[in-house]
Fold this protein.
Amino acid sequence: MDEFGIIARYFAPLARDAGAFALKDDAAVISPRPGFDLVVTTDQIAEGTDFLASDPAATVAQKALRVNLSDLAAKGAQPEYYLLNLALPRAVTEEWLAHFATGLSDGQWQFGISLLGGDISATEGPLSISLTAFGFVAQGRMVKRIGAQMGDAVYVTGTIGDSAGGLALLRQEPHDLSQAQRDYLTGRYRQPEPPVVFGSQFLKDMASAAIDVSDGLIADLGHVASASHVKIDLDAEAIPRSEALRALWGEGEGAIVRAATAGDDYQIAFTARPGRHSEIQAAADEAKISVVCIGQARAGEGVVLHYQGRVLTVPKPGYRHF
């Protein structure tokens, strides 16, 4: 099947917004919304780096969507549309494409978004998937990295390190986990759960600064600290880790540092003014997620990890692409 046949069979049914013209034009139209800003983000995932060749096609599609929606959530934006660019090895089968399209369709239904268009090309290299996601936020209300102030509390949603634990299992790291624990961790690697409802509905009203946790909690909070000209003190023992991850990597400073620097979590780390804890917890409850206070912004620079009265040395704060 050629490029146009692939588009017509697998992707045109996903282009449900009228502005996509059923993928029969060279461009799409996004209508302006008075009182809102359009927020745009893009991310790429590649086989061997962000997912494994053995991963199911549907979860690969879900991951490609969710890593982009995580960025929008951390900006306080409601996701609406996306563009999809695929570099497909010639060995990709129609069965794989069908499952991939099903994964996209399931994600679109869950998050209320629609495909606008994109491009497909062949490659002699590994499978590569690039998405550009679009969302709307009330005008002037996008949550930025800059904005954290001295005295702000530092929060993170969900649990940290699960995806890295799942990847470790898929790479045959020794363990003594139950099947349910293994499924949980590998599921978080293959199909992240970004807190889209919390981010799009509540974050802009509570956060002074925010970032999605993609390259590692410490590394990403380092971007907030740098942009906002503050130091972020973190309580290592407060960093939330799932029971499955604790069973895999254990307790202690080494296990915490490994989780906090691994990346691929797609949660939201954010700062908020003191006294807003009850409001934040109420919003988290309504969004059906967990949010934990893990530190405070102070005068200084960088991110400092405290553990039982000591400052931990963190040689590599997060994942590096190069």
The two ends are 36 Å apart (CA to CA).
